[in-house]
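This section describes the prediction task in plain terms. A model, or a person checking by hand, is given the sequence of a single protein chain and must write out its three-dimensional structure as a string of tokens. No templates, partner chains or ligands are provided. The sample shown here is typical of the held-out split.
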Amino acid sequence: MEKVSKKYDIAVIGGGPAGMIAAIKAGEMGAKVALIEKNEKIGIKLLMTGGGRCNLTHVEKSIRDFCSKFGKEGDFLLSPFSVFGTKETMEFFENNGVELKNEKGKVFPASEKAKDILNVLVSLLKKYKVDILFSSEVKEVNKKGKLITSISLLNGKEIEADQFIISSGGRSYPSTGSSGDSFIWAKRLGHDIIDTKPALTPIETKEQWTKSLQGISLEDVSISLFCNQKKESEGRGEILFTHFGFSGPLILDMSRIIGDLLEKGKVKMTIDLFPTKNAEQLDKFILSVFNKNRKKHILKCLNDFFPEKFSAFILNFSSISFDRKGNDITKEERMRLVKFMKKIEISIVGLLGFDKAMATHGGISLKTIDSKTMKSKIINNLYFAGEAINLDGPCGGYNLQMCWTTGYVAGQNAASGVK
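The expected answer:
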């Protein structure tokens, strides 16, 4: 093996958000750091977050409130979050010249450009003289006893270091380089791996009519999930119609539950278009709308609440002519409208795969990682950070904050462990 001429204090595998901030923190503390990236560029997935706007974190009332969004595994984050949480993340970027804005808890760069966040990270990597090894795919992580000795690359080079950080992501968006390699290395090193599934991913439905509504979003609806005819979960928020089924924040957030239910049986979903009203209240509301617009076509009446294409869809499924006017609608027709608006039934076929998922559910078992330091409990000079860990939260900046937090703490403690 050809060895690099420089001996490093710390070698970080993976140039995503967690790896970059880990390398920056370690470099800031004076460590000689190598950042190993299989792609020709770093931060590829970061540029995709928030639709390119980069939803970099989320403001919650407390640390515990934030961590609770990660489910039963969330308590793992309490300690690292107290070191580098939402407040510290915002200060980190603001102190480096990025103006931020808060949209109902979601924090973005004011420019709405993910590249501004990446530029800060790249600049700091240069400032702290981190060696970025591009197009460097890891072939093997070599160990002796309870210590990693080196990393062998496919290009024939061997990287030696005192401490190592694995932050090479999960399995979501494999086109960005996240192909699940971290799970292979961690397992070989003795760590348990929780079965991985796509998280924050769209769903595919049996019904084909969603294709005709592709691109339409509904901002405030509620959905209920049923498995084998038993109600299992419900949620409220925004959904998006697609050519294969549904996406949107609410669907993405509930996709983990949907995936679990699909393993147990047939899954159906119902949509309530007016979650703040029961059937009787909705009937009175619709009647008042029609009475105020007695000479107006019913399609036009519905367009006050929905996109025209969706209004037409509602009337079609309720078997009501578009040409009918408000004062022509019978009570029976009105009740059909109410029934449909309160309960649109959909059969879920499955989740879209990792190529469409925004995160990975499952990964390196938290039982094998010290939450205070992000250090492996099995290998004495190994740390973990980012999506490779068995932690995934909802949409809205939670998962990216988890990367900042675990990366910062891993980099800080790895640097502290350098002799």
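For orientation: The longest strand covers residues 230-241.
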